Amino acid sequence: MSGLADLILGRPLATEEEQGERVGPLRGVSILGLDALASAAYGPEALLTILVPLGAQALVHVTGVMLVIVGLLVVVYLSYRQTIDAYPGGGGSYTVAKENLGKWPSLVAAAALSVDYVLNVAVAVSAGVGALVSAIPGLLPYTLWLCLALLLLLVLVNLRGVRATGAAWMVPTYAFVATLSIVLVFGGVKALAAGGHPEPVVPPPALPPATEGLTLWLLVRAFANGCTAMTGVEAVSNGVPIFRKPPERGARRTLGAIIAILVALLVGISLVARAYHVGATPPAQAGYESVLSQLTGAVIGRGWFYGVTIASIVSVLALSANTSFADFPRLCRLLAQDRYLPEPFEHRGRRLVFTHGIVVLALLSGVLLVVFQGVTDALIPLFAFGAFLAFTMSQSGMVEHWRRRRGNRLKLAMNGLGAVGTGVTCLVIVASKFVEGAWISILLAGLAVAMYAGMRRHDDRLKRAIHAADEPLSVAGTREPLVVVPMRGWDRVSIEALRFAMHLADDVVVAQVLTGDREVDDLTGRWKRLVAAPVRHAKKEPPRLVVLRSEYRRLFAPLVEMVDKLIEENPDRQVVVVVPELVDRAWFSFLVHPHTAALLREAFLLEGRPHLVVVSVPYYVCAGRVCIGRASSK
Amino acid sequence: MSGLADLILGRPLATEEEQGERVGPLRGVSILGLDALASAAYGPEALLTILVPLGAQALVHVTGVMLVIVGLLVVVYLSYRQTIDAYPGGGGSYTVAKENLGKWPSLVAAAALSVDYVLNVAVAVSAGVGALVSAIPGLLPYTLWLCLALLLLLVLVNLRGVRATGAAWMVPTYAFVATLSIVLVFGGVKALAAGGHPEPVVPPPALPPATEGLTLWLLVRAFANGCTAMTGVEAVSNGVPIFRKPPERGARRTLGAIIAILVALLVGISLVARAYHVGATPPAQAGYESVLSQLTGAVIGRGWFYGVTIASIVSVLALSANTSFADFPRLCRLLAQDRYLPEPFEHRGRRLVFTHGIVVLALLSGVLLVVFQGVTDALIPLFAFGAFLAFTMSQSGMVEHWRRRRGNRLKLAMNGLGAVGTGVTCLVIVASKFVEGAWISILLAGLAVAMYAGMRRHDDRLKRAIHAADEPLSVAGTREPLVVVPMRGWDRVSIEALRFAMHLADDVVVAQVLTGDREVDDLTGRWKRLVAAPVRHAKKEPPRLVVLRSEYRRLFAPLVEMVDKLIEENPDRQVVVVVPELVDRAWFSFLVHPHTAALLREAFLLEGRPHLVVVSVPYYVCAGRVCIGRASSK
């Protein structure tokens, strides 16, 4: 087992090896930047899709809207740079909001991000598989299985640790940047050379005739849609601790690189698309072709380079899920440290990553994928909202941060601009997509806030209940416990339990239940010879035998009844039930054995009796040819 | 909970109430006879389907083949009458083979029946739902859910006990017999009045032209197919104990009634079908109409009576699964008594039926239904084989029974005739259906035999390992156990466990594991004041504190390692690990808690260490507003 785990996940890393797992900006981009970079593939397309009713007019306006988005992106970048410097220990929206705005805003930020991260995984995985399936239609029936396989791959790579993840995704990340840059530069040069009207190698589909006039609302909706190009930008500020020391420098450089590449791609795409008359084709209809595919075809043609470009775009789309895998477990860890989530989210697993968060993220997004059968288009409108709500909380927190410190007016202004910009965008997104699905995001985020707060409340209650302050152990003489041994018959398993029970106390009751269904010897006749006589001979008090007959053939009910009576009659004593347990290690034993011991333990514990302790005394028997335990020591 | 169970399943019955649960022949027919009677609905159809290639000639031969089948049926009836008399305690094939032929033949009989019973449930349920769905096509997408719902209904009714089951199915059973009898008598009278050529009310589809000539092989295959009409006949001999005293009389009358009705229906159907020129239509093709539907239409027309008749036929088809529910659990009980199956199959549940067998039968056939998506036509060829193999084993056993007793030559001859008849039929079925699927039945039956024998072998080994004969308890002075208490911090849960541990022995080691992931106080500094001083003051040996630091952030590994070392160093002492367990009864607690105590227990027990006992000491905290246990007693 351990050999197999080593093979798949790598050898366990000691806590001191943490420094060695840290990365620089080169890997940082592929770990934290995939979500942001992939935005270049769908942001311009989302924007153009809204403008389809304008026909060829769309291309006149796309650059303008795109410039507004890029402006906002730059503001967000500058604000997050400041956040990284101010919170070098990891300044995700949750931390910033918690430090500056208080509990509830921080939970809102955490909930918004959680929903965003889970949706991002489902949408990215299904987008990647969707592209693969439309390239190889024979795979269509296996869509869901492919999605789940990709999810499993993401889990396994991320469980191998931060460095391994960075290495794994480096090739697709930089292939994406390189191929797309070549297309855009080449297209730009050709367009300039042709005086703005280049001849396409493969002409894109003609733009449809205009069906609507230009309205402000249309431009606003195009902006809201295009803002999906900004999702994923917050990832770096949350993941600062993965960088080599000083981490804030690595994080700053990584964020700068991501934003620079993203801005270049977004501006490049909108300009080259305009030059080549490339618009969006209506999605989910015959003749659909993505904007980047049209663009590559028009600039370069349909040769091998086209294939490489499209393959790298599809890989990055699918792998943009990785940003969630890097950040969600960290967010959960912070929440668990503040006891808004259970403790296991805090533990670093074998490769120093937060295993529990990774697995929970995969399960939640896996459920979404299964429910939507691997086609999650319906989820896309849900999803920019969470990111922008988190932006807004983070930027507002930073404004408060500078306000408290006084004096740094420029920084305050920058974060204020960011807060206003992202806040307004968030409202625009809600207004323009409320019916389409933004309301579901709002509902889910609300539920997440309630869940986090509820867990903390419950944990506080538990903490109070078990708190022992600094009081020393009280050794005041409690009375010896009263011991009950349920026995089915006279065999080694029961004998072992009886001997253990007699260690515990002098006051032992043996209870035998006869149901009448299986023939079991009533022990009454043999008790004196088997037990009472030898024990008396050793000058001890012999255990009492009680035979219970179960009218309704229940094995447990008479026992539980008897124990309850004993508890009632002995309020000052602890009652210990010693259950004989046969441990059979054959692989099929779970099918064969009635699990009496385990069920009995549950029966006693679940009902919550005070002063009751249940002990199973195991007796091991041979499994296959290997004998372990007592049986072998005879 | 108990109120709900009472409502659904009825109040628990005491073991003495068993007599009141027994039934007479009237209910007996509906409990044990549905499988046999439903055969009238598909046996003639199965026979006619094989003869379709003969065209109108088919009707000339159907009566002949049917008479052979009825002859065999009468022989089987007479043989089983003798079996019932000879084994009034229940003489299923398994018992008869075991008593007379030995272990392996009896396991073959049991395996054949088990396979037959499971297949019967799946096929009957899907046949019933199939008929319903073809009447109301809107239900087609819910086929599987309807199948599972019907299965659940069968489980619930059977869990209510034998009497309740008999009462529930009485109406459909006798409606089936009554409506079909009316159709046949009416048809027969009209045919006689018309001199053998009655005018059909709704003419049946014309018989297709002959495409093949008559061959012996065709007749043999028709016979093999028609023999499905005999499945279910063995049920009564297996279910004798459900009848009122003297049970053999009730069983004999029930079997007689079932056979008489079945023979009348089979002969009637073949004669009236011939008179009205009703043949089989090719199944699973457009224009398919069942033989009984054609017959009812031809004799009575398509009015309300047609509806009632078809509805009763469909109900009986679906409910013929009930025979399996009556017999399979009894067979399992017999196997469990001989330790070929685990013990729980022996226990009678709240209503004195063998709950475990009922549930296992439902699960197995439920799996078949899910795998085949509720359409189990493919399973039909698998299924007469098991019944006839069981017949043969039972009849051969009876031959041996009489041979040993000597003298009763007539009875021996009768059972001998039965054995030869059913044995030859079994071979015919295998030969004619081997490729279609009989090989799967043979394989499954073989696996079942291997499983039964394997369970017995395993159980024998366990029995030997735990056998204690009559040796009295040895009270020789074993040394006091060594106790280990894993503690996370100083709280009430841990304190409770420590106090219990100090009861167990003077030699207590407290182990604290620090993983570095969650901040937990190292207890070293406070140990003297909190524990050592007060314990010394009470003139006892204070527990030792061991702090373990886990380099790989594992909570359990260092503990297990330490305990293993203790075991090795103290081969003559028992080591007891006392695990503090927080019992939180909030409904969501299973999501919130790390289950450390349970996992720790498993970690210790699964590895099978000798001389190790694991104890959890529970500490109860409030759930919602109700506080139970220690927390409330403060």
Account of the 3D structure:
Two copies of one chain form a homodimer. The first copy, chain A, has 634 residues and is mainly α. In chain A, 62% of the residues lie in helices and 6% in strands. Chain A has a five-stranded parallel sheet with strand order 3-2-1-4-5, sandwiched between helices. The radius of gyration of chain A is 33 Å and the shape is elongated. Chains A and B meet through helix 17, helix 18, helix 19, strand 4 and strand 5 of A and helix 17, helix 18, helix 19, strand 4 and strand 5 of B. Strand 5 of chain A pairs antiparallel with strand 5 of chain B.
Write a brief structural summary.
The first copy, chain A, is mostly helical and 634 residues long. In chain A, 62% of the residues lie in helices and 6% in strands. Chain A has helices spanning 2-9, 25-32, 34-51, 58-86, 93-100, 103-135, 143-159, 162-193, 216-226, 235-238, 247-275, 291-300, 304-319, 321-337, 355-371, 384-405, 409-466, 492-504, 524-537, 557-569, 589-592, 596-606, 630-633; strands at residues 482-486, 508-514, 544-549, 575-584, 612-621.
